[in-house]
Fold this protein.
Amino acid sequence: MSRPRPLPVDPIEEAHRQWVGHGWGDVADGMAAVTSLVRAQQIVMARVDEALKPTGLTFSRYELLMLLAFSKTGGLPMAKASARLQVHPTSVTNTVDRLEAAKLVERVPHPSDRRATLIEITSAGRELVAMATEELNAKVFAVPGLPPDRLHTLLQLLAEFRHAAGDFDTGDEAARWSAHGSSETS
């Protein structure tokens, strides 16, 4: 993937300067943080999309296939998949529709709940998600763009942000990347 030519000025820093200049200095840091997160997400997703391109998977399809591959039986109820992926059930349904059309998953009746449907990964789905994982590991996850100590700091900050937003609650147990959690850098 070719990298775009860097801009001669940081546009977020310039936006911050403009925010302050227009009298919004009290929220300029928040604007810069949000804008930086959005831009970082765009950069990361471009790398992910490039790595996944040979597989034909989108990241949402990859995530669902990995969730199923990690499950004990290779299958989960649709509602549980939706909850674990933290997406609306309609999104899971749409993703399953596409994966099912590609014969990477199949819907099967739940063995003990007539109202529920299980999503099960097929052998073709397992093969494809293994190939996609190799690509992502080599091209994205192995080179996240920060040295290990800075990556750990980023993970701590993002975990703190996500926790404050109600994304997860580990109760009395410290989360891996909390200030009180593990100090590992891997």
Observations:
- The chain has seven helices and three strands.
- The two ends are 26 Å apart (CA to CA).
- The longest strand covers residues 105-109.
